[in-house]
Write a structure and sequence with these properties.
The chain has 168 residues and is mainly α. It has a single domain, classed as Serine Threonine Protein Phosphatase 5, Tetratricopeptide repeat (Alpha Horseshoe). The protein has nine helices and no strands. Helix 2 packs antiparallel against helix 3, helix 6 crosses helix 7 and helix 7 packs across helix 8.
Length: 168
Amino acid sequence: MRTLLLITVAFTTVRMSTSAISPSAPQWIQIRTAYRTALNNNDHVNTFESTCKSHCQTDALAKAYYGTALALRARASMAPTTKLSLANQAHDQLNSAATLQPKNLEIRFLRYSFEYGTPSFLNMKKNMLADKPLAVQFAKNPSPIKDIAVNFFQKCTDLSETEKRDIK
């Protein structure tokens, strides 16, 4: 009986800690909706950032979205030192997320799109070659942000016309 009680307590503790680790389905909808809005409207970047920040310490994909929020803040910033600082933070968050979940295609797409948009002199394009096939695979698969990935790759100069036709 004592063993059964300990197993029950241990299972309940693991279940409770697991639910705290990953955002719920409605929270993922909120994160991805905030991402979608922030991509097109700099006034919503802070909302996107705060939506991700509460989960970035416990979930690799949320960490990648948080890194993306920092990248969007860098894009919107006027001060060069702020742009660089935010870009470095974004780079670190995205690399950390990819290290935690190297096979997560969504993380690899977010990192690829960040690195693609950075100037070469910042030396932040080191993962593009490894990320490209995974990011393209992400764009070909169903996902809540598939349209964003497809649109990104249609404008991407790193893909051939044949590769672009294969992504729809």
